[in-house]
Amino acid sequence: MEVPTTMRFSGHVVAMPYPGRGHVTPMLRLCKLIAASSTSQGHDDGALLITIVVTQEWLGYIGSEPKPDNIRFATIPNVVPHRTQIAADFPAFFQAAITNIEAPFDNLLDQLQPPVTAIIGDVELQFPVAVARRRNIPVALLWTMSASFYYMLHQLESLARNRGFKVHLLDDDEEHIPGISSAQLSDLRTVLHENDMRFLQPEMKCISTVPKADCLILSTIQELEVEAIYSLKNVLPFPIYPISFPYFKPETGHSEVNNDDNLDYLNWLDSQPARSVLYISFGSFLSVSSAQMNEIVSALNTSGVGYFWVARGEASWLKEKCGDRGLVVPWCDQLKVLSHPSVGGFWSHCGWNSTTEAVFAGIPMLTFPLFFDQVPNRRKILEEWKNGWELKRSKLGSEELITQAEILEVVSKFMDLGSGNGKEIRDRALELKGICDRAVAEGGSSNMNLNAFIQDFLCFPRSLSGGGDLVP
User: Fold this and answer.
1) From the CB of residue 274, how many other CB atoms can be counted at a distance below 10 Å?
2) Is residue 245 within 8 Å of residue 33, measured between CB atoms?
3) Alpha helix ranges (H) inside 6-125
4) Which of 246, 328, 355, 450 has its CA 20 to 30 A from that of 337?
5) What is the reported pTM?
6) Residue 154's closest CA among 122, 125, 178?
7) Which helix (H) or strand (E) holds 111?
8) CB-neighbour burial class of residue 398 (10 A; exposed 0-12, middle 13-18, buried 19+)
């Protein structure tokens, strides 16, 4: 945690991500962008020093990650359960994160040198605003899901606060929430009814703290969520910066985890025909039932389609089940895989990071949401962006499953490059990729928003007046 002695710093930013893959990765990427941009802009008083705070467990995963000289890691103790326990009881993990991390984080800030001049905290942690206010320093919050889903939760939280509305009582009698369409409301009901209230209630508290911050960073491309971003600018009392992070191109060598097995799976991908491989990943912490896994494996082995499956905890079991056309691994550099010329489709749980990486890579998606924001993300893919198809669950015994027959039919058509539908969806995916590439290029919306955030929030001395307004 030593400060580079050859560099002068204009400020010291501390970043605190929520301890989950879908949060650590975008925070790390954001910090790399800030570090590189603040250095390249050549400020007379030096670059920004950025300290990324993670648990000791997470340092083991990302500690060897290549990073600029003005980024360093600092650790707090493992005050939350091991990340492999998330799936067993996600609400308990979430509660531990927002409850147990604040004190060691606050104590760490006293030990850091030079003195901290700004905090970037994850919305899901709830406490960064309170810590920053106690220390009289500015605080930005990072939202790692879609802008539209944040707006839905913001409106729901406002409704709950203003009407004494109970989150768990949202039902078909509630016909309208301002700014939310009937389709989105249907998705929101699904989210609320399917998820544990031990998770949803603290989530609403996290949302309620956002307006008390000094600005909000949205992990998105402005052109793909214009309406939601415009709506948020009308309801939040501070600047909003839509910035996208998943565009470190594979050839730059950026990788969020050090892994020695890359060569094997990349060699396998190199040996496959162009756009012939279906990439499959259901995220980093939730899994599907054994019955559903059996339906999927049986269908894939029958389909004749080549597939590359990242299965983490189930990898060893699946390796015994997969056929000659399949490869199963516990981890991969997802953006590198999605950008590989042999990959022609992505069967995804619709997590926001995976969704945006697929869009950046120009790869169409098969949607298979499992949890929370993944439900409205599916609607965005299917109805707004039109770069994906849906796999529909059916009742099979006591469980709702996507059956082998459904999987076989959809996968075969989805990976048929010669069909009209297959060409149409791939053309649309490439169209969206072009929008993203332009946004992150110099002068594009994401690039300009990043520069504005650095200039407006990070690069000038400031103090706080009453009420949390920033004073230059």
Assistant:
1) 11
2) yes
3) 21-40, 56-62, 90-100, 102-111
4) 450
5) 0.88
6) 178
7) helix 102-111
8) exposed
